[in-house]
Amino acid sequence: MSPDTVAILGFVALFALMLLRVPVGMAMGLVGVVGYSYLVGGGPALKQVGLTSMRTVTDYNFGVIPMFLLMGAFVSASGVSRELFRAANTVVGHLRGGLGIATVVACGGFAAISGSSVATAATFSSVAYPEMRRYGYPQSFATGVIAAGGTLGAMLPPSTVLAVYGLITQQDIGRLFIAGVLPGILAMAMYVATVALIGVLRPSFLPRGEASGWREMLLGLRDVWAPLVLFIFVIGGLYGGLFTPTEAGGVGAGGAFVLGVLRGRLSRADIRGSLLQATRTAAAVFTVLIGALLFGYFLTVTEVPQKVTLFLTGLGLGRYGVLALIMVMYLALGCLMDAMAMIILTVPIIFPVVTQLGFDPVWFGVIIVMTVELGLIHPPVGMNVFVIKSVVRDVSFATIFLGVLPFVATDILRLVILIAIPEIALYLPSRM
Amino acid sequence: MDRFIDAIEMVAAIFVGIVAADIFVSVLLRYFFSLAIPDGYDFGRLLLGILIFWGIAATSYRGTHITVDLVWSAVGPRLQRAIDVFATSVLLFVVTVQTYTLFDKVRDTYEAHVGTFDLNLPNWPFFAVAWAGDVSAVLLIAIRTYRLIFHPESLGRAVVVKPVE
After folding, report:
1. CA of A115: which chain B residue's CA is closest?
2. Terminal CA-to-CA distance of chain B, rounded, Å?
3. Strand partners of residue A96
4. For the purposes of burial, counting CB atoms within 10 Å of the CB of B152, is it exposed (0-12), middle (13-18) or buried (19 or more)?
5. What does the alpha-carbon distance between residue A120 and residue A76 come to, in Å, rounded to a whole number?
6. Number of Cβ pairs closer than 8 Å across A and B?
7. From CA A90, how far away is CA A219, in angstroms rounded?
8. DSSP-derived secondary structure for A137-199
9. Separation CA A161–CA A171 (nearest Å)
């Protein structure tokens, strides 16, 4: 068989295994090693398994993932989600749609610290949803704004998905994190504008909440100062070159632990739970990373990335036409798999195309993460929607997807803005 | 059995804490006292290897790997069980091969006398402990496969939410 035929069979086998629920990393590793064995030889292929596995798990740079996961777990266990929501609500709760705006702002703050979209959606389903319903917000809006707010986790630093993109493409993770800051703030601002617009167009839809006095506002801010200072210190240190990304994660985790214990917010059970949660997620991500690297050797010997590059650049669509095609592909894949799997499976193939077309790799990281995050809320899969449904049981999928629609439109508009003005993502990294 | 699995998971979790503490203290010492923990960098990365392999053991048993659940969630319980048995069998095969090849890596490191940068401590004991995590993974996945086939009720439902992305 020719390498092309082996490559095609490899992809067919990979998708078949993944659809049969074989863990994504294991499926990639198995197909990669079998394909490499066929083309190069069994001995070298098996040698690569041991070498790649050990090299990946003992790479200091890869430590960024468990460290930021641990920081997020400690901060989450400290009960910061409720405090962020309460603080935001004291400031904007009296506005029309104020509880929706408070949800977006609190989701952004929580997502920035936890780095997880799904965890943000799950947390705010129990924190913000009951409050919005108490004030008579419709189910569709209340669940839609939480699903959308959850996606901020992948954009605002520290983002696990951006870190994995950086590890696969060998881009500076610190620059990637910083590149996500302005697009993340833009995302929050556009979600807030969307809520405000819905409030103007359908005034009866989003009633006003109670106004808070200065004292309540100050009390609200007092509860959230510690995680905010920690976040600014960690990301500021990264931006200022004080820490490497792995060190920033370690300092963040250590800082979150110390603050949580000193403020009496972390019990022994919380600490144990946080350590376990970080371990489980890190192990799952590393399994996929090892599989992706093994699959990468197979891609190299079959020259798939070069052939895909030649094919796409030869279509005569122009660089933005090819980019649009890639993004449509990601949106379609979003119906099949989650963001992490999509990034790890496709970026090694797509990345050479993007660099060949002259796009900035850091900017593309932001664009692609933003695109795959759309997959978390658009039908028919929408992981965030499933998560909300698992917490809020009395709401239908159709209702949540209906509520998400205005935010999907906002996301698409934001993508267009970021493609038209790449400086939004690239300005801060250029100042590092 | 559950207590044994909890213990394995706790071993990995403790190593996460140790790695975080190592990095946190290293940074504090560097900025406030211009000091460095000898081999702090090497300890960090070697312990990372241990925590990941022991973590993979627990993750494999709990069924919380990143998976595509599209087909699985659309079929009935009998087919779901068949898919789970197939997926776990493939997982068992892959991790067994990985464990076998990792042993070579541990042996090579031992024979090459690879040491840490500052203290020249041998790397192979760290690699061996990490490898032991992979051996545990093989055992736990074999138990999971057996239970899926003969006692599926003992496993309960796999965790649905995987807060990775």
Report:
1. B165
2. 31
3. A208
4. middle
5. 9
6. 229
7. 9
8. --HHHHHHHHHHHHGGGGTSSSPHHHHHHHHHHT--HHHHHHHTHHHHHHHHHHHHHHHHHHH
9. 13
User: Distance between CA atoms of A15 and A288, rounded to whole angstroms?
Assistant: 15
The label of the residue with tokens 């490499």 reads A36
Q: And the tokens for A389?
A: 């449904």
> Which of A 15-44 lie inside 8 A of B, CB atoms?
17-27, 29-30, 33
* CA separation, residue A23 to residues A20, A64, A289, B45, B50 (Å): 9, 22, 12, 25, 21
Q: What are the structure tokens assigned to A255, written together?
A: 């800082």
> Per-residue pLDDT tens for A163-198?
889 998 989 999 999 999 999 999 999 999 999 999
Question: Distance (Å) from the C-alpha of residue B144 to the closest C-alpha of chain A?
Answer: 14
Question: Among positive and negative, which fits the CA dihedral A412, A413, A418, A424?
Answer: negative
Residues from chain A that touch B26, judged by Cβ atoms under 8 A, are 247, 250
* Distance (Å) from the alpha carbon of B37 to chain A's nearest alpha carbon: 14
Residue A174, sorted as left (phi over 0), alpha (psi -120 to 50) or beta, turns out to be: alpha
Question: For residues B55 and A275, is the Cβ–Cβ distance under 8 A?
Answer: no
- List, in order, residues 6 or more apart from B2 with CB less than 8 Å away: none
Rounded to whole angstroms, how far apart are CA atoms A287 and A13? Answer: 19
Residues 133-162, chain A: which have Cβ within 8 Å of B?
Answer: 153-154, 160-161
Split at pLDDT 50, 70, 90, the class of B161 is very low
Tell me how far apart the alpha carbons of residues A250 and A234 are, in angstroms, rounded to a whole number.
9
Q: What is the distance between the alpha carbons of residues B41 and B37, in angstroms, rounded to a whole number? A: 8
What is each CA distance from A158 to A67, A154, A299, A339, in whole angstroms?
10, 8, 30, 16
Radius of gyration of chain A (CA): 22
Nearest to B57 by CA among B123, B124, B102, B27: B102
* Residue length of chain B: 165
**Beta carbons within 8 Å of B20's beta carbon, 6+ residues apart:** A66, A67, A70, A250, A253, A254, A257
> Cα(A157)–Cα(B124) distance, rounded to whole angstroms?
36
Contact by Cβ (8 Å): A6, A39 = yes
Of all helices (H) and strands (E), which one includes residue A101? helix A98-114
> Span B58-75, mean pLDDT?
85
Residues whose CB falls within 8 Å of the CB of residue A121, separated by 6 or more in sequence, listed in order: A146, A147, A149, A150, A376, A384, A387, A388
User: Which of A177, A169, A172 has its CA nearest to residue A293?
Assistant: A169
Q: How far is CA A384 from CA A50, A183, A214, B91, in A?
A: 36, 20, 35, 27
Minimal Cβ distance to A57: which of B17, B48, B94: B48
pLDDT digit string, tens, across residues A289-330:
899 889 989 988 998 888 888 888 888 888 999 999 998 888
The two structure tokens encoding residue A260: 């949580």
Enumerate the residues of chain A whose CB falls inside 8 A of the CB of residue B84.
Answer: 21
SS3 B115: strand
- Locate A30 and state its tokens: 């198995």
